[in-house]
Every structure is written in structure tokens, then in C-alpha cells.
Amino acid sequence: MREPSAYDEWRAGPYSGQSVDALRAVAPATCVDCHMPRVPGASGGTVRSHRFPGANTWNAEYHGLDEQRLQTQAFLRDRVALSVLPPRVHAGKADLTVLVANRGVGHDFPTGTVDLHDLWLEVAVRDATGRLLMESGALDEQGRGAPGAHRYGSLLLDGRGRPIDRHNLWDARKVVYERRIPAGGVDLARYRFALPAATRWPLRVAARLHLRKFAPAFHDFSFPEGVVTPLSTVTLTSLDTRVAVDAAVSAGALLDWGIGLLLEGRAVDARPVLEDAVKAEPGSVDAWLALSRACREAGDAGRALMAAEKAAPLSPRDPRVAHARGLAGEGARVPPQPDLPRATVSTDAWLRAHPDAALEGAPGHVHGE
Ligand code: HEC
User: Fold this and answer.
1) Quick one: 346 and 238 in the same domain?
2) CB-based burial label for 6 (10 Å; 0-12, 13-18, 19+)
3) Is residue 8 part of a domain?
4) Protein residue closest via CA to atom 17 of ligand 1
5) What is the CATH number of the domain that holds 271?
6) For ligand 1, atom 7, which residue shows the shortest CA distance?
7) Which pLDDT tens digit goes with each residue over 297-348?
């Protein structure tokens, strides 16, 4: 098991400007560009900030550093974008997919101490009269947790099947899940709920992405004598929108959706979505490259090559294009990724007692099923 990996994630993503696998073209940025932004210097000009804004809002609160806390919160805001696809309705139920796109984090989101974070999506759906149809990820009454929410980060178990919740990573034996969104990548959060006969359209979807730097269990372990600083929740981004069944999907959302499916390993499903994306925006290099990858992974080298050829005149010097052409031309398939180390012990008892916990991070899991 590898621990700090932010550098590798950055290098493999779009911000390094060196990756042929980048999902989206962005202006390259180094660690310093983001984490040490230029600020006015004492004697004119600018200097690199040594506040190192990141995800640690708690540390600033603990030490009573208001300016540090405000800057960290501002740094975190709107780096991840939320949007929704038009719901699919069948047999009195609605399927809703929330697209969670990593737009401004230079590596996986989250990164660093992902076993300690508490990071989840809160979603509420109402009909046009305001009636609540579905709610997921609201904090419980004690404000400690949001059971069953769609979560980001990791859940590890030790050799006796207990959760690793004290940063005791050396005890880890099993990865229950690890859900992180690579730079430029998209995660698909799926929800299903009943539609009462009197449901009035359009539906109203409110979604918020929340972060607590430390999960309550770690906070309690660190401060057994009681609460020193309340664990505040920072809302990183929010969405409040109306959705109708027959609404058109924008070119940008089609590409996000296709990328989300690709990252789940569902190239066959991604392909028609990305065909629609290139139709909606034929000038998008990113969309042609994503389509090329979907076709390649789905085993259609011919269409993969054709899609890569379409990207070539749009961005002739883009190394991603040359790479895609090369792979497609060889009819090559992307090699399967090596499995994460598996447990050598039985952790079934813990998982049986906590069925929600595994599902919170399972790829493709439908919340509310
Ligand atoms: C495009 C902007 C950007 C770039 C480039 C970037 N980061 Fe980040 N980084 C962020 C944001 C935003 C967060 C907070 C969200 C998160 O934790 O994923 C973050 C969080 C982190 C964290 C977690 C901090 C915590 O308190 O949990 C670490 C560690 C980190 N970055 C290291 C790096 C390193 C090392 C590099 C270069 C290899 C780098 N970052 C490049 C934007 C960036």
C-alpha cells in the first residue's frame, strides 16, 4: 500500500502538462502555483504565500487563526463542480445521476490523509410543490455522521475487521473502498427514489459537497477529554437546479458523463454518450480523445482510430493525440490495472454489521435502492 501519492497523481493528470492520459486540457500548474499563490509583498511586488492553503481548515480553527481559516475555505471553494443529468423515469421511480467533476484540484480529490477526511455529498430532491421526494447525506441529529451518504476518501479495515479510523495505517489489511476523483475526472453519484402519483414537475435538486477535515472518530480519539474545537463542516460547492425528464443534456455534461463512465471501467456504456458529446461539440479535442479511449477499451480499434484522427487537426501538437492514434492504430487495449492488495483475513463480520459502509464507496452503487 502506498501512502503519499499527490505527486504521482499530479504527474499523471492534466496539470503536469506531461501526461498523455490527461482527461481534459488545462493550463499547466505546479504544486507551488496552487499551494503557494502569489500575494502582495511587504515592499511592493508579489511573494509566494507561505500559508500553504490546502484542505486543513481544522488546524486553523484549533489555533484560532481566523485569516488562515478564511483563506483555506476560500481556496477550497468551487474546485469541484456539481451538475445533474435529466432523471430517467420507469415504473413509478426516478433515477437521478449527480455529476461530481474535479475541475480545479491538481491531483486526486481528495488527496493526502484520505483515511481521516469526512467528505460526502448531501442531496435533496423536491417536486414543484416543494414536497420532499428523496434526501441523502443529511447529518444525523448529533451532527456526527451522515449514514449511507455518497462519500469520498477511503475505508480500510485492520486484521480483525475493525475500521482504520485512528490513522493507524500500519494495521490496514483490507481496502473496503477508495473513492477519489482524478484531476479532470468525474464521479457519478446515483440515486433512485419513488415518484408518488401526484408528483409535480419539474423536480428541484439541491446538492452540496461537505468536508470535515477529520472524521468524528479520529477527533474523539485525539481528544478523549472532550471537544476542544468543534468539528466544523465546510461546504465546498453547491447546486440548486430544476430538472425535467426530457431536458437536453449540454455538450459539457455529456463529456463529463462519458468520462465518469470511462473511469468506472464502463467503456461500452460511455461510448454512445461520447458519440453524442462529439456531435454536440465537434471542436472538442477532449471529447474526441475520450471517445477514442471508449472505443479502444470497448474493443473497436477502427472507430478508436477514426476518433483520434478527428482530434489531430484540432490540436496537432497535443501529445495525447499522437498517443491515442498510436494505441488505436495498434489495436492495443489498455492493460488491466493491478489489483490493490487484498485482505488475508476475514472481515465479513464487520461488513455484515455495517452494510451501508461498504456501499457508500462502491462504484456504481445506487443510493436509495
Ligand atoms: C490546480 C491546483 C492544485 C495543484 C497544481 C496542486 N494542488 Fe494540492 N490541493 C489543491 C486543492 C484544491 C486541495 C484541497 C482538496 C483536496 O484535499 O483534494 C489540495 C490538497 C492537497 C493536499 C491535502 C492537504 C490536506 O490538508 O489534506 C496535499 C498533500 C497536496 N494538495 C499536495 C500537492 C502536491 C504535492 C502538489 C504537486 C505535485 C499539488 N498538491 C498540486 C489544489 C492543487
Assistant:
1) yes
2) middle
3) no
4) 110
5) 1.25.40.10
6) 106
7) 999 999 999 999 999 999 988 999 999 998 887 765 555 555 544 444 456 6
